[in-house]
Structure formats: structure tokens, C-alpha cells
Amino acid sequence: MDVRRDQHAVTATTTDPLAAPPPSSAQSAPVRRRSAKRSLGARLRENWILSLFAAPALLIIILFHYYPLLGNVIAFQDYLPFLGIGGSEWVGFSNFAILFNGDPAFIAAVRNTLVITLVQTVFVFPAPIVLALVLNGLVSERIKRTVQSIMYLPHFLSWVIVVSVFQQLLGGSGLLNNWIRQHGGDALQIIGNPDDFIALLTSQVMWKDTGWATILFLAVLSQINTDLYEASNVDGASRWRQLWHVTLPSMRGIIILLLILKLGDSLTVGFEQIILQQDAVGIDASEVIDTYVYNNGIVGGNWGVAAAVGLVKGVISVVLVLGANKVAHLFGESGVYQK
Amino acid sequence: MDAALSRRSFLGGTASAAVLAVAGTSTLAACSPGGGPTGPTPPGAGTLPTYVPFNGVAPDSPGAAGRASDVFFRYPASPARAISAIPGDGKPFTALTIADVAPPALGANQFWQQVNERIGSPYQPSFAPGADYPAKFATVSAGGAMPDFFTVLPDTPSQTELFAATALDLSEYLAGDAIKDYPSLANIPTESWRGTVFNGRIYALPITRGIQNTWVMYGRKDLLAAAGITADPKDFADFEAQLKALTDPSRNRWALASIPLDYVRQMLGIPNRWSAEGGTLTSALSHAAQQEALEATRKIVEAGYINPDAATSPNERQKTWLLAGSSAFGWFTLSAWPTLKTEGSGAYDARGTTVPGFADGDVGRAWLGDPNHSIVGIAKANKDRVKTILKMADWLATPFGTEEYLFRNYGVEGVHYTMADGTPTPIAEKSPERSLGLAYLSAPPRVNFAPLKEVLLANQKFEFAVTANAVGNAATGLYSNTQSRRGVALDTAIKNLELDIVLGRKPVSAWEAGVQTYLNNGGKAIAAELQKAADANHRTSGS
Amino acid sequence: MTALTRRPAPARRTQLRNGQSPAHPVMRVIKGLTLLIACALVVMPFVAIVSTSLADNDQITRAGGLVLWPEQSTFDAYTAVFTGGVVSRALGISVFVTTVGTALSLITTAPLAYALSRPTLVGRRLVMMLVLFSLLFTPGMLPTYLAVKQLGLLNSLWALIIPTMVNAFNVIVMHSFFKSLPQELFNSAKIDGASEWQIMIKIVLPLSKAIFAVVGLFYGVGYWNSFFTSLLYLDDSSLWPLQMVVRSYVVGGSQLSPAELGNPEVLPPQPALQMAILVISIIPIVCVYPFLQKHFAKGVLTGAVKG
After folding, report:
1. Which residues in chain A (74-133) have CB-CB distances under 8 A to chain C?
2. How far is A264 from chain B (nearest CA, A)?
3. Helix, strand, or coil here: B283?
4. Between B139, B141, B488, which is nearest A299 by CB?
5. Which residues of A touch C290 (CB under 8 A)?
6. Residue stretches of chain B with pLDDT short of 70
7. Helix A303-330 and helix A289-296: axis angle, to 10°?
8. Does A168 contact C at CB distance below 8 Å?
9. Which residues of B456-477 are buried (b: 16+ CB within 10 A; e: fewer)?
10. Separation CA C1–CA C165 (nearest Å)
């Protein structure tokens, strides 16, 4: 591995430590302009190997994603599995009514969803970035690896287990509160408090997935050209300056990418995690779009409703992601994809 | 439909009326007019099988259908085979059913190999654990080809259409006296067959539970005695006083492991989901005493007599509180008693508590549970071998006391269990072999069997006591399409409201509006559909 | 192409291995404490899970479910789980599905991501949209099942691999990673007459070990953790992977009452059993991680070509 890396090693290094890893638009633009003039056939002939690279994965996506996606026409049916698409009744847009009937409970669920998304974007999203930066700055490789190995463990527990473990440790009759009461203290209401539900959800998500999400950022950090640091070291740059001028700019691309994808997911917040804990805090505090649709539509085996909601959410996601991507382009970022 | 069958059907109806009187329910199977599946709808309502109890072994203490389970202290010595012929036809039979745990594969599973040999057809099951079963079931039914046996859980939507489209109509073979060809199936009480009838035809086999699904309040008699409590509560105030005496949060003790809303409702005489007074089906949600029940329960919660995690903990965890003695009362089914063994002493101290009247003049009534765990359809493709399939089902339902039952539940002596003094002891490491879901394909009535004479007799005595005036759900066996499609959603909303109220998150007065919403969003339609089904039976008030 | 020289090792220890300057001592203490607390918070529940798997029933009952430390350790639960051969068989299947699946996933995902990162790919925008939209629109459970059935994959282990082989998120992440590689590398290679194949193998792959490790881990963990595909696509329970077996222990519960089993000593699966099987299901995948860590411990791009 070292040998191979060294094959590409060079003495001359980047002199401008402030430069972000350059997105390639400048270099690639002429190429694209040139090829646009040629016929499709000629371009295919010239670059057939790239198309070949793309083909197998695309085939899988088409076969197992787009082909079954056709089945989502059941959004317009009162679909019963044993009758099939052919035998089920067509019902027009009535499955969509659940989203557009103006039920105050649904509007409350949308509000809850957006609040939770916002809170989680503010607290959950940066957590792995911070952890990655902290780990990246550690001197001891051993400590770094140990911490990493420990922090990513909870990702492997299912929500059923996580919720159950949280309850048994922090619940009203959980280990912590039992201990407090035995020692004469007042029990803490951590689990069943509607006012703190979002905080509870957020801390559970952070507990479960911060370490896991760190992995991607660590990989990105590992790609940073260390010469950049060295160059700035020579300049006598402080640690904060390094962070600000070298580290963060290198992570900017992936952070923006993940933010955009997260934005597309705004309407989806931890369904399983929430539905498992709804009883503790009540519907008003905990109902989100997914649980509302589940509790009010899907539980009766209404597959059509599930498909209808999926379609609407998909359309909204597309609008959000494409919009956010446009905004990213305006700021000169590459976003999820480039023009 | 020949005349003989009609007469047999009529007899079946009479037999069921007798059971009705005992069980306290008052309606018969659904027969919704119009939009029926294939086949003619028979005249009248006499579509149920004749009940012919199995008399092969005498219980050590007999129960009664709808009242109490039969009790056995030991397995009969050298049990006889109930069925001499091998039921199968050599061709494989498939099934979609529930697995408690993953069983070893056929090649490494002596029990499975024996099952194949004894049934005379290779068993090819497909499993899902209970919680995932609905998803598996939906995909299999979407795929088109149903397996020979398929377990249908109670909340499965659109069952009438499902059975009409995928299952064989079994009435010809099972209605009235026809069932006598299958003596073990005839041993299943009529109450359980009610839930297998759709549009007047028998479309499934019941996985019967008798009264075992009935929820009751268990009390730890040792803890109660230590607190000076020796009798069941006389009324609500007495119950409250008992709870107070048993609660001590500083020692992490809360009298109740479960929220006792249904228990309080029973004290107030609120009906079991649906009542049929005066021939009119009415949802218990509209009962006048509901708010009183909610308020009384809310007070119990507020006073801190309930484990603070009760609302969010699954029943299994509530059980451990009772076992560990951190709670003295818990709400479990009648079938739960063997799992309620006191930690440390290993004694069975948890006993059922009868339902007192709420106050002077009130009569408390327990609610009988669903007589079935689930029902089992037979795939349409089996038209030509239906008798073989039913013989297999008959074999799978051979009752306690037979050699077949012993084999199905314990396996092969010396391999899967050891027998001493009429008590079989399973060999633990071979237990997973028996997890083949056979008990969800066809099943005999349940018995209570253990070498624990005192415990079993006390439990049976309690069963007789609590079912003496217990009420069934008047809508059992009546079908409503709205209930099937919207019912779970509506019930979920009500459940959430109940929790909000008893936990103090909403005022009791919110109940009224919640029930109104329930009625407007489908409750009224459900009532009307059930009423129509009941009227079609002309029996709502008759029995 | 370029001059080959070894980067001289740092003379002093005033900088980290990746070249950053060291932190202020106070900051280091704060950081250390934070990490310590974070790790403790994560570890505690795991201690409880492992302890419960080792504790006896009485203690579990007394504790009401989770045990912080077993009074008397017993491996009964583990013995019980491994007898009958179900778990060892399932473990084998999980390892097969995970390794083969991850390999196939990387073999298909990386070329697509690479192709997408090249401006000369014909129909690049369309392909990108196909990938992106597949992330945002998900087909339902039943249509996917029907597709798998029509393609004849039901009841085969391939049904656990092929339908989930390409994950759009991973494609996008990998693509963005390839994009961020210095374009000079590509250009100079092109000038040298290298084909796309040679560029991918000789230049991109060596520089992308970290992202291969990460995406491989994402895929591997995905395969390892998935139980739903086996629930839906496999009728033969002897093909169930480990997570499906775990699932049946955790959520299956035992609906068969022991009331008629004669001997109530034999109870349904206890918390110890559930936790033991949980531990067994986590350990193998956890062991993989340290092997991958080394791939993103150092700056791979150090001294990469410029110009």
C-alpha cells in the first residue's frame, strides 16, 4: 500500500492551503462542450467503456427499483394483496385524502415532524462531524481506534432493543431511578415526559448513530492532503486556523452533500423509534407524519394509502433535493451532482 | 344443498344455542346479504358443526366449555392412538404459519422427520415470527399461490374477501353432523367455530383457546397476605385501599404492574366491546359509565399505585415485576399462570382476582376473551384432496390424553422428553425441534396440565368463579367490512385517548369528543354493519 | 509521470501523524474527558446486555429485565442458543451473504460511481437522476416482492443479495469522493494515453481505499443486519440468516402457553437467551471494523500528483 502511494508521491506540494479540494468543473467543461457537438453514437463509441462500467449497477436499480415502482399504481386502488392489481378496485385519489383532509391532528403531526427534523439537523447532524474532528486531532492512534470501535457499537442494536434498554435504565422504575429512590432522592422523569420527548428522541439517535456516522467523515479526513497541514504548520498557523482553513474546507463537499440528502428526508423521522415510544408521552407530543399515516391508514392493511403517501413524500423530496442542489450550485458548491 | 345437510345445520344451530346460554354471548355467525363469495348462501343460520366432546380420557377435575378448562395432574399412562390410519396421501403439504423460534432443518430434526412419517405426507412449512407474520402473510397472498394451510391472525383485513378468494368452502365437510367424520375437529367447542364462518359458510379451522384468552387481575397472594389482605376486593374503594397498602415507592414497590382500566370498567358493568341488549348492537364506548371508569383509573395512576413504566412496558416485562415482587397485581390472560412463578421461592403465588361491583349495587362482570387465537384457511387448490387435508387437520387436533397429542407436544420419549410419574420433562436442547408451528394449523381445546394439584385446582375454581357471570363480546363472529378495514385505526385512536386520560395528559371530559370522532369516522358504520349481520341471523334477541 | 521521493519523516513530534499541529493542553484534557464520558455512556448499556446474557433467571427477574453485573455467571444461555445447530448454520449463511454481497456491491457500485464522476459518460445527467430518484422514491414491499418472484429469485440466497446490491446513497457518496480527487491526476493520465479502465484501477482505486472501506462497511453491515428480505423472500427457514433467527427470538415471543406442556419449568425464551443471541449477532461484525480502520487512519493523498 505504501509503495503504491509513494509512486504518486511528489516533492512539489500545494502551496495554497486555503484552497478547497477543487471541484472539477473548470477542467471538465471543455471536454463536455467538445463532446456535445458530436453525435450520440460517436460519443458512445469513444466512451463505451464508461457506459459499460455503469451498466450492471444501473440494471440492478432498474430491475429492483424502477420496475417495482410501477407497482405503486396501487396508490390509486383499494389494493388487496390476494386480489392483486388486476383484481383490486380503482378508487382515484381517495387514498391521498389522508394527507389533504385538513385534520388538525395531521397538521400537528406535520409540525412535530418539522420541529424534530430541525432539532435533529442542529444537534444530530453535526455530532459525528465534531467527533470526527476530535478523533482526527488525537495524538494516540491507539486511543483513537479504541474510541472509534466503542462509539460505533450501538448502531448494531435495533430500535426495539435500544428503546427497551433506555427504558430499563432510565424509566420511572428503571435502574437509575430505583437507585435514586433507594437513596432517598426524587425520581427523574426522563422517559415519560411529553415536554422532553424531542430531547429524548434526539439523544437516542445521537447515542445510536453518532459513532457510526463518524466513519464517513473520518474517511474524508483521511483524504486530506497532509502536505496542506505541513505547509500551514510552516506558516505557524494555529490549530484553529488549520481547522478553519484546511480541515473544514476539505469536508465541505461531503457535509453539503449529506445536508442536501437529509433535507430530502425532512418529512421522515425515525418511525420505528417513535412508534415504540408513543404510549409513554401520548399522541400529541409524538405524532409525526409517518406515525399518523400508520395509525390512521396503514394499520388496516390499506396498502394503497401507504403507496399514496410514499408518492407524495417522494415528490416533495425531489423538489427539496433539486432545489437545495440548485442553491448549492449558486454558491459554487458541487452538491449531490453537478450540472 | 340437500335436505339432510340443512337439518344437520339446524341441529348445529341448536347445539350452539346451548353453548350460548352458558357462555353469555348472544349472537351467531355472520351472514351479510349481498356481495357474497361463490356458492349459495344456505337458508337459516344452522351452519355450524355439531359439537361432540371427546370422552376418551376423564380429566382429573373436569371443566366446562366456556367456563373452565379441564385439569390433568398427570398424563394418562400408555395413551392410545386416536387415529389408526395414516392421514396423509404421500404428497407434500405446505403451510404458512407462526414459528416461535427457528427450528433445526429437516435433516437434523428428528421431530420433523417423525411428523412426516406419522402424517404420511412431507410437511413443508414457511414461517414468520408472530410480530412479522402480517408482512409475510401479505406478500404470500400477493404472490397468488396460498399454501395448503395458512394461519390468519385476527386483525387481518378484509377476511370475507380473503377467504372467498383464496380458501376452500368447508361447510360441506364440516357443517352439522358432517364433522363427525373428523372426531377431533368435532371436539372443538361451537364458540370457536363461530369465528370461522363468513357469509354463512365455514371457511377455516379455529385455533381454539376457549376461555384462556380472558384477561384477569392476578394478585400475588403471598404479598397480599403479608399486607394483611386475605380476600378479593369487595368494591372499588376496597381495591384502592389494597393498592395503597401495597405501594411503597421508596422501596420501588408499586401495587400494580398494569393499568387497570379494563378491570375498573368490568367493576362498573361496562360490556365487553359490544352488547346486544334489546337486540340492538351497541359499542361499549358509548356506555354511560366510561368516564367514571376513566376517572377512577386516573385517580389510581395519580396516587402512584402503578409502576411508572406500566404504560410503556410490554406485558412480558410487567410479568417480571409481579414475579420479582415489585408489584402485587398484574393484568394477564388466564393462560399466563404457568409463567407467573415467584422469584426465589418458585411458588405459584399469583392467583386470579374476581371482579367486584364498583360500589354498592353494581355487579362486576369479567369479559370473556376471544375464543380463538387465529383461524386457518385451506387453499383452494386442494379441492381434490380436501378430505385428506381435513384428516391431517383432525390428526393435528387430537386432544389431550391421546398418543398423538403426547407426540405433537413432547416428541419422542427418550429423544425429546423423559417421562416420570405421568409428567413429561422436555430435554431442553431438543426443544427447538418442536417449533414447527403445527399448533397453529389445527388444534384441540386447551387443558391445564401439571403435577401441581393445589395450584391447578385453585385456578380452576377461580375460572369457574370469574366466568360465572362473565360476558362475551356480542359481535363475536359478526363481520363488518368497516371494522375490518378501519377498525384497528379507530381502536388505536381510542387506546391513545384512554392512555392520555388516565395518565393525566388530557381531561376526562375529552372522552366525549373522542367517542364522537370514533363514531363519525367509522364507528356508526361498523355498528350498522354488525347490526345487519346480526339481523340476518334473526337470533340477536332470540337466544 | 512524477518524481518518486519519500516524504521525510517529521523530525519533531510537534505535529500529528497527519500533519496537524498539536492541541493546547487544556483542550486536550477537555477532549479526553468528553470522549471518556461519551464512551462510558455507550459502553454501559452494552455491559448490561452482556451481563444479562450471563445472569441467571432469578437475578434477571429481580432486576426486572436488565442486569448491570451478573452475580453468578452462567453460559447456559449461550449453550442453549448453540445447541440444535440453528445458530451456527445461520451464522454461516450470514457470513456468506455478507461477504459475497459486499464484494458484488462494491464491484457494481464503484464502476457506476466512477463513470458518474467522469464528464465523458454518455447520458451522465440522466444516469445521475436515475440514481438520485431511486433514493427518493421507494417501491413498496409488495411490488418489490412480486419483482423478486418474477425474476425467479424466491427461496434462493441470491434474493438476499441481488435486490439490495446497489444502494443509491452509496453510489452518490462514492461518486462525490471520486469527484473530489485532484482532476490533474486524470488529465495527466489521459495525456499519457491511459484508458478509463487503467485510470480506475491504477489511479483511483489506490487513492480510494478509505471510501472503499467505508462503503464496503456500509454494505456489509446492511447485509449483516437485514432480516426483512429473508423473512419475505425465503420460505425455507433453514436458509434464514442469523438476524432472522435473532428476530424470531426477540419479537417472536412464545405464544404457545406452557400451560399444557405439563412441566412449567420449561418457559419461553428468557431475557438471558435474547441477550445472548444479540451478543452473538453483534460480535462478528464488530470484529471486522478494526481491520478497516487502518484504511482511513492516514492521509492517503499525501504527496499526490499536482499538475
Report:
1. 74, 81, 131
2. 27
3. strand
4. B488
5. 145, 149
6. 1-46, 537-543
7. 170
8. yes
9. bebbbebbebbbeebbbbbbbb
10. 37
Question: For A187, phi and psi rounded to 5 degrees?
Answer: -65, 150
Stretch A175-180: mean pLDDT: 86
Say yes or no: C291 contacts chain A, CB-CB below 8 A.
Answer: no
The pLDDT assigned to C296 comes to 66
* Alpha carbon distances (Å) from C140 to A64, B288, C169: 11, 44, 18
The CATH code for residues C79-304 is 1.10.3720.10
Q: Which H/E stretch holds residue B206?
A: strand B204-208
Q: Is A77 helix (H, G, I), strand (E, B) or coil?
A: strand
Q: How many contacts, defined by CB atoms under 8 Å, are there between A and C?
A: 359
Return the closest-CA partner of residue A5 out of C217, C199, C179, C205: C205
Q: Where are the domains of chain C?
A: 25-74, 79-304
Report the C-alpha gap between A188 and A193 in whole angstroms.
10
Indicate yes or no: CB of C264 within 8 angstroms of CB of B450. Answer: yes
Helices (H), B94-216: 110-119, 133-143, 159-166, 171-174, 183-186, 190-193
Residue B154 CB coordination number (10 Å)? 11
Cα–Cα nearest to B323, from B348, B309, B343: B343
The answer to whether residue C282 neighbours chain A at the CB level (below 8 Å) is: yes
| Chain C contact present for A25, CB below 8 A | no
Q: Does residue B101 come out as left (phi exceeding 0), alpha (psi in the -120 to 50 range) or beta?
A: beta
Lowest mean pLDDT among A259-263, A297-301, C115-119, C280-284: A297-301
Q: Which of A9, A141, A233 sits opposite C19 (nearest CB)?
A: A233
Distance in Å, alpha carbon of B484 to nearest chain A alpha carbon: 7
DSSP A74: G
Q: Find the CB nearest B499 among A80, A172, A279.
A: A279
Contacts for B508 with CB less than 8 Å, ≥ 6 apart: B291, B294, B295, B298, B501
From C2, C206, C290, residue closest to A10, measured CB to CB: C2
- Side chain identity, residue C60: I
User: Tens digit of pLDDT for each residue in A102-117?
Assistant: 888 899 999 999 999 9
Rounded to whole angstroms, the Cα distance separating B243 from B300 reads: 8
pLDDT (0 to 100) of residue B291:
97
Q: Smallest Cβ distance to A81: which of B142, B251, B487?
A: B142
pTM of the model: 0.86
List chain C residues with pLDDT less than 50.
Answer: 1-14, 254-269, 299-300, 302-307
pLDDT score for A12:
32
Whether residues A173 and C35 touch (CB distance < 8 A) is answered with no
Distance of CA C105 to the CA centre of its chain: 12
Cell match 458512445: residue? A44
Alpha-helical segments (H) within C118-241 = 124-136, 141-150, 168-179, 183-191, 196-198, 205-207, 209-225, 228-233
* C236 within 8 A of C84, measured Cβ to Cβ: no
Are B529 and B322 within 8 A, CB to CB?
Answer: no
pLDDT for the residue C271: 75
